[in-house]
């Protein structure tokens, strides 16, 4: 008999904010913790991306973030790979909190299914689909 599945928990990076996006996702039934809740305020403002990627991966949390240049940041990509992180990123910086939350919720079924697979991976979250950024297809 296999052990019971761990509940899926999401880690919300500071790029998505401390309040509005987490509140909307929680209202939609997502189990999550924000960077500010995990590290505390004001420490949350100084935690390096590579550290929270590592910490969240070690805890089994799936990362939600916003970063239009993430695919070009080698240190962060190396952290995702090295720690087998599972990440979903919105690559636009010009949306409202409601629009960010809406993108995650609109893709909830695909995000939850992908979250149940091992990392490392990173998907861009679009309004109507996920796009795999890492590892590249083919």
TrEMBL record:
Return any one Pfam family short name: PIN_10
Which source organism? Nonomuraea monospora
Source superkingdom: Bacteria
Instruction: Quote the InterPro entries the UniProt record gives.
Output: VapC45_PIN-like
Residues forming the VapC45 PIN like domain are 9-91
Q: What is this protein called?
A: VapC45 PIN like domain-containing protein
């Amino acid at each position: 008999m296999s052990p019971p599945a761990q509940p899926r928990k999401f880690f919300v990076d500071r790029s998505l904010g401390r309040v509005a996006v987490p509140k909307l996702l929680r209202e939609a039934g997502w189990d999550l913790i924000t960077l500010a809740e995990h590290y505390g305020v004001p420490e949350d403002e100084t935690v390096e991306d590579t550290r929270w990627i590592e910490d969240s991966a070690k805890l089994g949390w799936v990362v939600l973030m916003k970063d239009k240049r993430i695919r070009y940041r080698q240190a962060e990509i190396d952290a995702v790979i090295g720690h087998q992180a599972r990440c979903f990123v919105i690559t636009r910086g010009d949306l409202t909190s409601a629009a960010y939350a809406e993108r995650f919720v609109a893709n909830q079924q695909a995000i939850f299914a992908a979250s149940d697979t091992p990392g490392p991976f990173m998907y861009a979250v679009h309004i109507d689909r996920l796009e795999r950024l890492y590892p590249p297809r083919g």
